[in-house]
Each structure stands twice: as C-alpha cells, then as structure tokens.
Design goal:
The protein has 11 helices and 11 strands. It is α/β, with parallel strands linked by helices and about 325 residues long. The chain has 2 domains: about 1-55, no CATH class; about 55-280, 2-enoyl-CoA Hydratase, Chain A, domain 1 (Alpha-Beta Complex), CATH 3.90.226. A 7-stranded mixed β-sheet has the order 3-4-5-6-7-8-9, sandwiched between helices. A two-stranded antiparallel ribbon has the order 1-2. Strands 10-11 form a two-stranded antiparallel sheet. The longest helix is centred in the middle third of the chain and has 17 residues, at about 140-155. It is globular, with a radius of gyration of 23 Å. The protein starts with a helix and ends in an 11-residue tail after the last strand. Bound molecules: zinc ion. Zinc ion binds near residues 29, 32, 34, 48 and 51. Zinc ion binds next to loops.
C-alpha cells in the first residue's frame, strides 16, 4: 500500500490536480501588492522580492527546499475516525473535510516526511494552512505522534513547521485532547535525547501555540509571522487598549525572548543544518589535524613585512562532521 500511496498516488494527483500551475504568469504580493513574475517568486522560495513578505507555502514546497536534493519520503499517517461528533454548522464537517482534501490533495492539515538534511537523517512535519486553517484535530494529533515516533525510531531530530489557527472546533473536546497528546509525543523525542526544533510560520495560534509549537529545544520563526494564543483583535477588544506596533509578530517575540531567532526562508536550511549538527554531535571527534609551517604575506597594515605564522591547520575536509 505504501508504494501505491506514497509514490503512485501523488504522481497521478500531480497530473490530475493542476493547482500548482498558475492561471496567469503573475502573482500579487498580499503585503505590498506588487506584481511578481511567478517563476521569480518560485526561485525566491515564495518570498516577495520587493518587501520580503513570506508567503504561505505547501508542505511539499517546504520539503523540497529543505531536504538534500529535494528528495524525501512522506509517511502514511494512521487513519482516524471521521467526524466523530457528526458535527454540522452551515455545512457538514464531512463535506468541509472533503472540500479541503480535494483542494489541497492532502488527507489532513499535517504532512510528515523523512530524509536527510546536510547528510543527516531528519524527520519534518509541516502544516498546510489552506487545509481548514491548519487546524489541529485527531488527524493532526496522529501526525505529530507518528512524526515523533519515527524520529525516535530513526534516531533523527524532529523539526515541525506549524501554520495553524488552533484546535479544530468541529471535533470539540477531541481536538483539545490533541494538546496533551502532542505534548507527550514531543516529550518522547526529548526522552530519547533527540533535538526537537520548531519553526514558527505565519500564523501559529490557538491550541497549537498552547502545546507542541512552544516546546521546541530551539524555537525559530519566519519573519513577520503572527504567533500568539488569541489574535490581536480579540486581545484588543478584551483589554480595551491599543496594542503596540508589530505585536505578536516574530520580531516582537524575538525582542521579548519568546523565540531564539527569526530566520529568512532562504537561510532556513543552512540554519537548521547547523543547529542539528551542533545538537546531534556536541562532542565531535576531532580528526588529527596536520600542522604545517606557512608564511603569510601581510600587505599594507604591517608595512608589507612578511610574517611567519607558527602553525596553520590544514583545511578541514568535513570528515569530522559526520553524525555520532
Ligand atoms: Zn511584497
């Protein structure tokens, strides 16, 4: 089944579902409203070249940017009961689910993939905000648990990219139960001594912020992302005070010690690889470095005098860089 599901089905869906093909060649930046040539936007990893606005991207686009050579394997996620509460608002929940599945060609809002990043094994879990606002129900909870267990099984770090409006209200208490479940799941990764890294993307709010999204050993954020529990409008109307500029944005959270770094999308891969390298290999076995006498010519500053440096290490070939 997995070969059919993981390989054949996406290929067929890619043929049938043409949502990645733009209707026209131009996209409009939702922030500065400039027109951008679609191919340019793709090359810029969907970051506006004019105002640096980080647009929403699909889990597949994220995986393709982050894994070595863009190759990865998505895992089949456990099946969950569909619409356990038989919920209906203006529409049946089952209909909403079907619509979202057709629109995104995803089973639910979270996708889990594994592969290598800078030659180290890594498990990634990314959210698709266009699937019912990336809301966390049973399926998303299962995805997080599956991602955590896979990370433990593979002795690989877990990196999660939440983009969510919070818990899925159509699943009531069952969606709220995913908060402790996902917390326990990331706890398993921690107990196994493996790094758990969160990259907060726009938006990370509600029950997701109140559980696994704020528990990263290292918390990174994409620039300009809205991160908080309740949204600014709700807070403003509750406390009846004007909120400061940039409230609940990544940069504001960085200034107030809630995130460790705000990382531009183009630097994300290198940053993650470096952090994972440091965390998975805290005491790298240093190779014996051959020392050679080398004379270095220093111009101008020392009056062009030749200075002899005692010993200069031979350039590292990266051999001591392997995971432990
Ligand atoms: Zn823009």
């Amino acid at each position: 089944m997995s070969w059919l599901n993981n390989f054949v089905r996406p290929k067929i869906q890619a043929l049938v579902n043409r949502r990645n093909v733009p209707d026209n060649l131009w996209d409009k930046c939702p922030s500065c409203e400039q027109m951008i040539f679609h191919r340019d936007l793709e090359a810029q990893l969907f970051v506006c070249p004019h105002c640096d606005h980080h647009m929403a991207i699909t889990p597949e686009q994220r995986f393709a940017n982050l894994f070595d050579d863009g190759t990865y394997t998505t895992i089949e996620l456990p099946k969950v009961p569909v619409d356990p509460l038989k919920f209906r608002d203006t529409k049946r929940y089952t209909d909403r689910l079907k619509d979202a599945q057709t629109k995104t060609s995803h089973g639910d809002a979270a996708i889990v993939a594994h592969g290598t990043m800078a030659r180290r094994p890594v498990v990634l879990c990314a959210f698709d905000f266009s699937f019912m606002g990336g809301s966390m129900g049973l399926a998303v909870g299962e995805a997080l648990v599956a991602a955590a267990r896979l990370a433990v099984l593979q002795r690989a770090p877990l990196v999660v990219f939440p983009a969510s409006g919070g818990a899925r209200m159509q699943e009531g208490i069952l969606s709220l139960m995913q908060m402790p479940r996902t917390t326990v799941a990331v706890g398993e990764v921690r107990d196994a001594g493996l790094p758990y890294i969160v990259v907060l993307t726009n938006p990370t709010t509600g029950g997701v912020t109140a559980s696994f999204a704020m528990l990263g050993d290292v918390s990174l954020a994409e620039p300009g992302a809205l991160i908080g529990f309740a949204g600014p409008r709700v807070i403003e109307s509750t406390i009846r005070q004007t909120l400061p500029d940039g409230f609940q944005k990544s940069e504001y959270l960085l200034d107030h010690g809630m995130v460790d770094a705000v990382v531009h999308r183009r630097d994300l891969r290198d940053t993650l690889a470096r952090i994972i390298g440091l965390l998975t290999n805290p005491q790298p076995q240093a190779d014996v470095v051959e020392l050679v006498e080398k004379s270095v010519e220093i111009p101008e500053a020392t009056g062009g005098k030749e200075v002899t440096v005692d010993a200069v290490p031979v350039e590292d070939d990266g051999a001591g860089d392997k995971p432990a």
